[in-house]
């Protein structure tokens, strides 16, 4: 939510200060406030505030949403701290395991919602979760009022629990929280870290996400085993090696390393959390954890958005340092801390062991129930998606579109995937490239728009470059099979990393190349110059039949435009359209049929551009259309753009609807030759 605001202005907005909500546990360092928070009435109020903040999704604007959400974050962390450090050993044990299983449950729900977090995906899901949360909060309030002796029992237990260093345990817990969010916040993330071009792109998010889910579950099961110093050291080395493998290996090698890291990560959760809650100072421990957690999230932002933040140059493309720091904190706590796992730490009385054994049994049953439901969801989605795919209808004509997407959020901060799917489907485009589409980042929501739109529309997909390459991502959606593709990082010595994809699509036996690219910012002149040269070389080396869809931040007739046209040997879809700045469609070896620009209506900050082409039967003997037509009745109906977007319109469309604008749609046909 915080990231939405700087996203709109490409700079820090000041609302990042709301991150201070994560530091509410620092208040619990003060003894009177700790006692106040333990009061059952105050705890009840905090629980209701926490649940009520879920309704922030239904607020009318983004600013009000963050104002409602912030108190909920504050309250949730205070409640978490109080409940993890209060009560008898069995209560604390079950609360912590509930938190861990909750992470698995969230992954399963996101599988059924195709990578979306259901609580922030739609009004209906948000309302249902709000009601369930309220019921759970009331149940906990009632349960607390019936257990007035819990704190006394808890105090007795505290005297027998071995103490941990609050600073190290706090830093390790915060790092583990971040690691889980960063890489395992959604089961498709490993695939997006490991992705490469076709025909060997690495594992698809579905069904490979099932392997990630199983890896996480096996990590939980391993945590029930006790360990020695030797096995802990070997296991830490394995975890660090798998993290390095995920970062540096390609495709399946990276995916296998990621799966091992999944086992390691979830295996650490009960062990590290057990040491964390055995710290003598809960306020200090949780405050340290949240400070490290927030710092690592901001570091993650700085690694990719370094161009727009102060001091960004020092964090540029430094995910390797971030991952190293995270693994170091986790590893140190495992090696230096107590060898006891969560079960051993709380099972301090032999009379309680049967109750703990029963809880452990239920924990394992719920774990595998969740995993089974998650695998079922993946299987059903996979079957439905496979049925939608096919060779596509036989045709000589096809359409291509480009759209800067803003990571799946509209101009008011709401998820826009449903609206995007409707818009893209109405365009009828056969090939679509969507820029700024890598939302597989923790500060954007760990969403996979490529997978979501591919499954929704029934299109083949390509995503790249890899999330670990620090670009904002490019998505390609194709109604027709993608034969091959390559992912490129364009020269970017000064600004943000510019991505590109070159690919070949099979239009029922006719192969057409596509090059899609997202150039750097206007102020980075050297970057744009080098990027134009690099892309022109890609265009020059492509086949005779080619479409370029690019975001090049230069005006028509500019240096970079000329570089692409002349050295790339391509033609502009409409060289008369001088009112463009970012999006361009160029082509070679094809016959142009139509060109349209469709207003964004607040769904993004940029319009959709679209072109229609015909594949000539003889590449060496064809004539391109050279006459512009604005009356659709003068061209065949089968090449008309969808009339749902209205008719020809000069100038911008400022109404809140999707409509043709900027002197489009235009059609092209040949000028008749006089005898």
Overview of this structure, please?
With 675 residues, the chain is α+β, with helices and mostly antiparallel strands. 48% of the residues lie in helices and 13% in strands. The protein contains 20 helices and 14 strands. The strands form two sheets. It has an eight-stranded mixed beta sheet with strand order 3-4-2-1-12-11-14-13, covered by helices on one side. A hairpin with a 2-residue loop joins strand 6 and strand 7 (510-518). Helix 3 runs antiparallel to helix 6 (123-145) and helix 8 packs across helix 14. The chain is elongated and about 95 Å long.
Shape: elongated
C-alpha-based Rg, rounded: 28 Å
> Helical percent range?
40-55%
Number of helices: 20
What structural class is derived from the secondary structure elements? alpha+beta
Given as residue ranges, the uncertain stretches (5+ residues, pLDDT < 50) are 149-160
* Strands side by side in the biggest sheet: 3-4-2-1-12-11-14-13
The CA-CA distance between the termini, in Å, is 66 Å
Q: What is the count of β-strands?
A: 14
Q: What composes the largest sheet?
A: 8 strands, mixed
What is the percentage of strand-forming residues?
5-15%
Overall residue-averaged pLDDT value: 91
Summarize the structure.
This protein has 675 residues and is of the alpha+beta class. It is built from 20 helices and 14 strands.
């Amino acid at each position: 939510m915080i990231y939405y605001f700087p996203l709109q202005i490409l700079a820090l907005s000041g609302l990042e200060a709301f991150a201070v909500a994560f530091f509410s546990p620092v208040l619990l360092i003060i003894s009177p406030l700790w006692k106040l928070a333990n009061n059952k009435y105050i705890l009840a109020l905090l629980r209701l505030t926490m649940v009520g903040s879920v309704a922030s999704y239904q607020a009318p604007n983004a600013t009000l949403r963050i104002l409602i959400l912030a108190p909920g974050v504050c309250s949730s962390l205070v409640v978490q701290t109080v409940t993890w450090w209060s009560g008898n050993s069995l209560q604390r044990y079950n609360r912590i395991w509930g938190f861990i299983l909750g992470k698995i449950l969230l992954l399963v729900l996101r599988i059924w919602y195709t990578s979306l977090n259901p609580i922030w995906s739609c009004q209906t899901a948000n309302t249902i979760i709000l009601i369930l949360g309220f019921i759970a909060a009331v149940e906990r309030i009632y349960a607390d009022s019936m257990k007035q002796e819990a704190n006394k029992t808890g105090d007795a237990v505290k005297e027998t629990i071995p103490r941990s260093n609050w600073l190290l345990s706090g830093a390790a817990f915060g790092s583990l929280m971040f690691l889980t969010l960063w890489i395992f916040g959604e089961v498709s993330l490993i695939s997006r870290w490991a992705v490469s071009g076709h025909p060997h792109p690495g594992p698809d998010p579905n069904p490979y996400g099932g392997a990630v889910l199983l890896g996480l579950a096996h990590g939980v099961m391993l945590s029930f085993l006790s360990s020695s110093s030797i096995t802990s050291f070997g296991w830490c080395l394995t975890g660090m090696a798998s993290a390095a493998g995920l970062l540096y290996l390609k495709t399946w090698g990276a995916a296998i390393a990621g799966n091992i890291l999944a086992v390691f990560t979830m295996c650490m959760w009960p062990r590290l959390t057990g040491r964390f809650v055995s710290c003598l100072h809960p306020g200090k421990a949780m405050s340290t954890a949240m400070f490290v957690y927030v710092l690592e999230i901001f570091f993650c932002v700085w690694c990719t958005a370094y161009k727009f933040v102060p001091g960004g140059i020092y964090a540029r493309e430094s995910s390797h340092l971030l991952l190293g720091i995270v693994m170091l904190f986790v590893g140190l706590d495992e090696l230096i801390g107590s060898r006891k796992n969560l079960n051993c730490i709380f099972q301090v009385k032999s009379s309680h062991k049967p109750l703990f054994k029963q809880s452990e049994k239920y924990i394992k049953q719920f774990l595998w129930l969740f995993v089974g439901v998650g695998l079922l969801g993946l299987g059903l989605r996979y079957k439905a998606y496979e049925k939608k795919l096919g060779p596509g209808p036989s045709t000589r004509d096809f359409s291509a579109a480009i759209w800067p997407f803003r990571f799946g959020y509209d101009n008011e901060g709401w998820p826009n995937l449903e609206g995007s799917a409707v818009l893209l489907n109405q365009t009828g485009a056969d090939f679509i490239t969507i820029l700024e589409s890598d939302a597989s980042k923790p500060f954007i929501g760990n969403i996979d728009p490529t997978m979501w739109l591919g499954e929704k529309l029934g299109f083949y997909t390509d995503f790249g470059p890899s999330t670990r390459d620090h670009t904002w991502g490019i998505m390609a959606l194709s109604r027709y099979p993608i034969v091959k593709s390559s992912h490129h990082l364009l020269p970017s010595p000064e600004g943000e990393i510019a991505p590109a994809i070159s690919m070949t699509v099979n239009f029922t036996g006719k192969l057409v190349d596509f090059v899609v690219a997202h150039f750097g910012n206007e102020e980075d002149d050297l970057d744009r110059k080098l990027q134009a040269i690099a892309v022109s070389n890609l265009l020059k080396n492509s086949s005779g039949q080619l479409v370029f869809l690019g975001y090049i931040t230069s005006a028509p007739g500019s240096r970079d435009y000329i570089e692409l046209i002349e050295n790339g040997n391509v033609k502009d879809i409409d060289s008369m359209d001088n009112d463009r700045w970012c999006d361009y469609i160029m082509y070679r070896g094809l016959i142009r049929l139509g060109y349209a620009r469709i207003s964004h209506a607040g769904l993004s900050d940029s319009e959709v551009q679209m072109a229609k082409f015909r594949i000539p039967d003889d590449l060496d003997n064809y004539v391109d259309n050279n006459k512009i037509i604005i009356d659709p009745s003068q061209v065949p109906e089968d090449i008309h753009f969808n009339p749902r977007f209205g008719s020809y319109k000069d100038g911008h469309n400022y109404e809140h609807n999707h409509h043709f604008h900027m002197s489009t749609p235009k059609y092209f046909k040949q000028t008749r030759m006089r005898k």
